[in-house]
Amino acid sequence: MGQIDGFMKFPRKGAPLRPVEVRRYDYQELYQDHSDEELGIQGARCMDCAIPYCQTDTGCPVDNLIPEWNNLVYIGQWHEALERLHETNNFPEFTGWLCPAPCESACTLDLVEDAPVTIKNIERQIIERGFQEDWVHPLSPEPATGFRVAVVGSGPAGLAAAQQLARWGHEVVVFEKNDRIGGLLRYGIPDFKMAKFRVDRRLEQMEAEGVQFQTGVDVGRDVTADELRGQYDAVILAGGAEKPRDHEVPGRDLAGIHFAMPYLVQQNRLNAGDFLGPNEQRITAEGKNVLVLGGGDTGADCVGTAIRQGAASIRQLNIHPEPPHERSDQTPWPEWPYKRMDSAAHDEGCERLWRLYVKSFTGDNSGHVAQANCITVKSAQRRPDGTRELIEEPGGDVDLDVELVLIAIGFAGPYSDPLLEDLGVTPDERGNATADPGTRMTNVEGVFSSGDMYRGASLIVWAIHDGRQAAEGAHRYLMRERVQRSIREVAD
Ligand SMILES: Cc1cc2nc3c(=O)[nH]c(=O)nc-3n(C[C@H](O)[C@H](O)[C@H](O)COP(=O)(O)OP(=O)(O)OC[C@H]3O[C@@H](n4cnc5c(N)ncnc54)[C@H](O)[C@@H]3O)c2cc1C
Ligand code: SF4
Predict the structure, then answer these.
(1) In a 3-state reduction of DSSP, which class is residue 450?
(2) Is 466 touching ligand 1 by the criterion CB < 6 Å?
(3) 375 and 341 within one domain
(4) Are residues 88 and 107 in the same domain?
(5) Which of 32, 98, 31, 27 is nearest to 310 (CA)?
(6) How far apart are the C-alpha atoms of 77 and 71, rounded to whole Å?
(7) How far apart (Å, rounded) are the C-alpha atoms in residues 130 and 78?
(8) Atom 30 of ligand 1 has which residue's CA nearest to it?
(9) Mean pLDDT of the region 206-223
(10) Which CATH number fits the domain that encloses residue 31?
C-alpha cells in the first residue's frame, strides 16, 4: 500500500483544470497533469482497504485493480501500473478522461473524509504516460479459430468486444452506420472532454491486431439480418440507445428548438474539419439566449458547447428540486450519491434552474422560438409508461426569453431500425435488446447484446464492461460450437 497514514498527511488534489477564462474560448481538453511526484503522493493516500469498495460492483463496473495501481504509482513503477490497468479495461483513457468515477464515491475515504483517492486522475495519467513512453502496442492474437464475428456499432461496447474477440483469434468485423468509428466517443461527447486522437490511436492498435472496420454500413438496411447470420458465426449487438426523448408541448415545432445530439454532433464534425452539408442548417448558440432542457451529462455538454460558441446567456433547466450539496441520507456510502453535481461546464457560465417545466413555447412573427413558458413543479414522478405526473405549484409561472432551445432529457432506446425485429431478438419495453445477464446471449442463438443497447443509456465504463461480457459469452459459445462440430465429424 501507499503510506499507512498517507490519507491523513496529504490532502486530496484532483486533476488541475485549465482556467475558465482560457478554456471557454477553445475546444481543447479541460484537464492538466500533476507532476509524477504529486501523483505518487495522491496514490499514497490509498489505504489498500481489506474490502476495497472502489473495486466492487458499487464502485468500478470493470473491477479495476485500483489499490494495486495506486501503490505502483506511489513507488514509481508506472509500467507495471499500466499492465494492471489493461488487465481489466481495454480503454482506460476513455474512462480516465470521461468517467464520473463511481469508484471515488465508493472509496472508503469518501465515507470518513469526504475526500476519496483521486482514482480517475491516477488512471488517466498512467495510461497517458503509457502512450507517451510508447508502452502501448498491439498484442499478438491467439491462433486463428476460423470463426467470424460481426459487431454492430463502434462505441465503447462494440470496440471492447471486438478487441477481446480478435485477441482470442476470431476474425472480427465492426460495422458502423456513421462515417467515422467511435460511437458517442466520436460524435456526441465534445472534444473539450476528450480529444478524438485518443480514439484514433486505439483504432490503429485494433487494426494492427486484426479488427476490420466498415463505416457507412447501416446493419439491418445495407446488410440484412439474414446476410449477417449467413456470413458470421456470432453477432454482437452494440448499437447504443440513440432515440432521444422528446418534449412534446405546444410550440415544439418552432424554429430554434433542437435535440441535443444533432447540435453536439455538428460541432464535433466542424472541429474534425468537416463542412456543413448543402442543405444542412448551422445550429449555433452565438449571441443567443440558450435554454438547455435536462440536467444530465448531455445537457452539461450542450452548456459547454454553447459557451464556446459565444452564447449571450445559458440557462439549464431541471424539473427536479435542487439536490443537496452533501451526499443525501437516502444514498449512504458506498452508493452513488444523490447530491448536486456541477460539471466543469457549469463553472464556465451557466445559470441552473430547478423545479421548472416548460409547458409551451411561443414564437415571434417569423416562427422562431422566443419564449419558454414554464411552471414551477411541486413534484414530477415518472409513471411506468415514461410520462410524468406533474403537480404544479400555484403562482409559479415563469416566462424565459430564448432563441435556442436544446432538448437533452434522455434517451428512450435504440435507434429504430429493422435489425432487432429481423433478427428475432426480444426487446424490452424500451426496445433494448434483452439478453441473459450472464452470457449476454439474446433469445437468438449466437446473437449477443451489450452496452446502451442492452441496459439503456448509461456510462462508458458500463459499455466497456458489457462489451467484454458479450465477447466472453460469444467466445464460450463459439468454442462450444467447435467441440460439437468435432464430435459430429468424429461421429460421421
Ligand atoms: C452527449 C453525451 C455525453 C456523454 N458523456 C459521458 C461521459 O462523460 N462519461 C460517460 O461515462 N458516459 C457519457 N455518456 C454516455 C456514454 O457515451 C454511453 O453510455 C456509451 O457511449 C455507450 O456506448 P455504446 O457502445 O453502447 O453505444 P454508442 O457509443 O452509442 O455507440 C453505438 C454506435 O452504434 C452505431 N449503430 C447503431 N445502430 C447501428 C446499425 N444498425 N448499424 C451500424 N451501426 C449502428 C451508432 O451509429 C453508434 O456509433 C454520454 C452520452 C452522451 C449522449
Ligand atoms: S476504497 Fe479508496 S482507500 Fe480503499 S483501496 Fe480503494 S482507493 Fe484505496
Answers:
(1) coil
(2) no
(3) yes
(4) yes
(5) 27
(6) 9
(7) 8
(8) 240
(9) 97
(10) 1.10.1060.10
Q: Do 399 and 294 belong to one domain?
A: yes
> Which backbone phi and psi does 119 adopt, to 5 degrees?
-60, -45
Per-residue pLDDT of 97-126, as tens digits, reads 999 999 999 999 998 768 999 999 999 999
Q: What gap in Å lies between CA 317 and CA 362, rounded to an integer?
A: 17
* Distance from residue 81's CA to the centre of ligand 2 (Å): 16
Q: What is the pLDDT of residue 113?
A: 65
Residue 142 belongs to some domain of the structure: no
- Tell me, using a 6 A CB cutoff, whether residue 107 lines ligand 2: yes
Same domain, 152 and 14: no
Residue 3, pLDDT above cutoff 90: no
The reply to whether 396 falls in a domain is yes
Instruction: Indicate the top mutation candidate among 108, 113, 120 to test ligand 2's pocket, ranked by most ligand atoms within 8 A of CB.
Output: 108
Which of 49, 56, 63, 72 is the pocket-test mutation for ligand 2 (most atoms within 8 Å of CB)?
A: 49
CB 351 within 8 A of CB 237: no
In a domain, 334, yes or no: yes
Tell me the three state secondary structure of residue 492.
coil
**Residue 171, helix vs strand vs coil:** strand
257-259/404-407 β-pairing: parallel
Peptide bond into 337 cis (omega under 30): no
Distance (Å, rounded) from C-alpha 442 to C-alpha 439? 9
| Shared-domain flag, residues 217 and 341 | no
The reply to whether 263 and 377 lie within a common domain is: yes
Residue-averaged pLDDT of the chain = 95
* Shared-domain flag, residues 120 and 192: no
Instruction: Give me the number of domains the chain comprises.
Output: 3
| pLDDT average, residue stretch 16-33 | 97
Q: What does 219-281 look like in DSSP terms, one character per residue? A: BTTTB-HHHHHHH-SEEEE-----EEPP---TTTTSBTEEEHHHHHHHHHHHHTT----TTPP
The sign of the torsion formed by the CA atoms of 115, 117, 120, 121 equals: positive
Rounded CA-CA distance 57/64 in Å is 10
**Domain stop point among 409, 425, 454:** 409
Query: Which ligand does the CA of 3 lie closest to?
Result: 2
Helices and strands in the chain: count of H runs, count of E runs: 18, 16
Q: For residue 40, give its domain range.
A: 6-132
Please calculate the CA angle 264-212-411 and round it to the nearest 5 degrees.
Answer: 30
Asked whether the beta carbons of 467 and 450 are under 8 A apart, the reply is yes
Q: Return the residue matching grid coordinates 470496440.
A: 159
Residue 137 is assigned to a structural domain of this protein: no
240 lines ligand 1 (CB under 6 A): yes
Q: Are both 309 and 379 inside the same structural domain?
A: yes
